[in-house]
Each structure stands twice: as C-alpha cells, then as structure tokens.
C-alpha cells in the first residue's frame, strides 16, 4: 500500500486518491457514502476540510454510550458519568421528562431552570413538555426547545463540543427521533445490570458478583493477585486497587469468579478467602 501525503490536501482529494474499498473486490467507500443520503450530506459538509480537521471532528467514544448515569442496580441517578457532552445533555432532558411525567414536580423544579410564577407558566410548561414527548420530534429540536424555554441553561462546553470533537456525532444524532434515544435508555435501564469495576467506586450493593477475567487488558492482570502474571509493579498495584474497589462494594454477599484451573492461583486464593468459601464451579454443575 502506497503512503498518501495529506499535507495541504482537502479531505475529498484524499478520499479520491486513496481509492479505499468496502471489502476486497467491493465498491469504493466514497461511492457507498454518496449512495446514503445521511452520510452523503455529512460528507458534503466536510469534504472541503483538511484531514486533521475532519479527524478531530469525527471521534466517537464508545464507552460513553453505555455509561448512562441512572444506576439500574440501585434505582438512582449517579453523580459521576463518562457520557460525552451530547449524551449528558440528553440525559438531563430525559430526566426532566421522566420527573414531569411521574408527577415528581418538586424534584423537577430543583433541576430545571424553568420558573413557575403563574398559571400561564404552568400552561406553557405543559405545552413544551407535550411537544418534547412527541413521537416524531428530533433530538436536535428537543435540545432547541429545552434551551429556548429554559428547561436547561445554555452550555458553552456543549456548544464547543458539537462544533469540534463531537461535530460528526451531533450531525448524526440531531436528525434522529428523540424516541430512539429514549428507547436506548429504556434498554440500558432494563437489561444492563452489569457495571464495570471502574464505574462502581463509591456505590454499594447488597449482592455483588465480581468477574476476574483479564480479557485483552494490558493495564491490569488479575493473575497478579495470586502470585502469577505480570511482573510489572504498576500493573500489580493498579490491579490490587481495582480489586479492592470491586470487593468492597458488597454490603452482604460477595462472589468472586475467576475462570482458572491453575493450582497455584487456587492455593493463593486462601489468602483472601476461607477454604470453605473456595468452590470449584464445575463441581456444582456435576452435582
């Protein structure tokens, strides 16, 4: 593959020059983009930009998508969240909609910037909440209405984000129905009952199941807890701290599961747990 010099070139020139295909023997990516109305519209916006500018405006943080601040395990909203500026803003509007629908008006008024001083204000609030809850309203329009009617205050950080790092994400999201966002939250609240160890710091639960699986991590290695694995001291210390956070979340019951048949690891587990508490899962299956 020949190296392409992007110095001083427009993005559209680089796309044409690179001739990247969807798959071996497949169509050109640029042709696929142009055949999709939404992608084509976005491509038309960025094609006269430099590659650096396009790259800086087209980043999506996948971790952000799953870090909704409502904790389904504790049925409460968590203060900390890794959501990006767009999703945080949508989460705030959604929370207001939910509070209003369920009649939790005191909580609603504590969060919103909307002021009620007369019956006219109540009617105005009812009208805007009805419009925001409509089936066909877009995400972009919801944010516009929320700001216009001062349900939420204008946010310079949000504006900066959608004009820079979140430009691509916002261009796609703003034309989507708000109901699709609502559906995604309903799914996360109902079905996602697993939380990463990084997300639970400060939270407590009656029952906790901790899964120790190294996966493809290189910053952590759970084997080091049992005298094996990485010899890197930083990795060992990070792993110990993470393990401590995980096991101290349990208020009543704690189960730690580690898929391993290594005898040394099993013996070392006795430093953490009583012998009677160390169980071979396969023996339970056999029974």
From TrEMBL:
Membrane-traversing stretches: none
InterPro entries with a match to the protein in the record: DNA_helicase_UvrD-like_C, DNA_helicase_UvrD/REP, P-loop_NTPase
Annotated SUPFAM superfamilies: P-loop containing nucleoside triphosphate hydrolases
GO biological process: recombinational repair
Any Gene Ontology CC annotation: cytosol
Repeat recorded as keyword: no
GO molecular function: 3'-5' DNA helicase activity; ATP binding; DNA binding; hydrolase activity
UniProt entry keywords in alphabetical sequence: ATP-binding, Helicase, Hydrolase, Nucleotide-binding
Residue span, UvrD-like helicase C-terminal domain: 190-257
Gene3D superfamilies per the UniProt record, alphabetical: P-loop containing nucleotide triphosphate hydrolases (3.40.50.300)
Pfam families, per the entry: UvrD_C
Top-level taxon of origin: Bacteria
Name of protein: UvrD-like helicase C-terminal domain-containing protein
Biological source species: Streptococcus oralis SK255
């Amino acid at each position: 593959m020949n190296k392409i010099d992007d110095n001083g070139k427009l993005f559209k020139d680089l796309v044409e020059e690179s001739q990247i295909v969807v798959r071996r023997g497949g169509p050109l990516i640029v042709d696929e983009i142009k055949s999709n109305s939404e992608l084509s519209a976005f491509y038309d916006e960025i094609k006269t930009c430099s590659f650096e500018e396009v790259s800086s405006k087209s980043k999506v943080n996948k971790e952000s998508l799953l870090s909704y601040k409502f904790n389904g395990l504790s049925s409460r909203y968590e203060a900390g969240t890794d959501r990006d500026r767009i999703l945080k803003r949508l989460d705030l509007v959604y929370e207001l909609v939910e509070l209003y629908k369920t009649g939790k008006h005191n909580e609603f008024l504590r969060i919103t910037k909307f002021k009620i001083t007369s019956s006219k204000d109540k009617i105005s609030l009812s009208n805007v909440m009805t419009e925001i809850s409509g089936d066909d309203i877009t995400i972009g329009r919801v944010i516009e209405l929320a700001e216009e009617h001062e349900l939420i205050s204008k946010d310079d950080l949000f504006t900066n984000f959608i004009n820079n790092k979140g430009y691509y994400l916002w261009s796609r999201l703003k034309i989507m129905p708000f109901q699709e966002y609502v559906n995604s939250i309903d799914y996360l609240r109902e079905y996602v009952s697993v939380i990463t160890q990084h997300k639970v710091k400060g939270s407590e639960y009656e029952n906790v199941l901790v899964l120790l699986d190294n996966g493809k991590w290189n910053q952590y290695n759970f084997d080091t807890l049992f005298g094996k694995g990485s010899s890197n001291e930083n990795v060992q210390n990070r792993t110990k701290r993470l393990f401590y956070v995980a096991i101290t979340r349990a208020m009543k019951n704690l189960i730690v599961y580690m898929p391993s048949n290594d005898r040394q690891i099993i013996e070392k587990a006795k430093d953490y747990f009583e012998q009677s508490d160390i169980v071979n899962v396969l023996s339970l299956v056999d029974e």
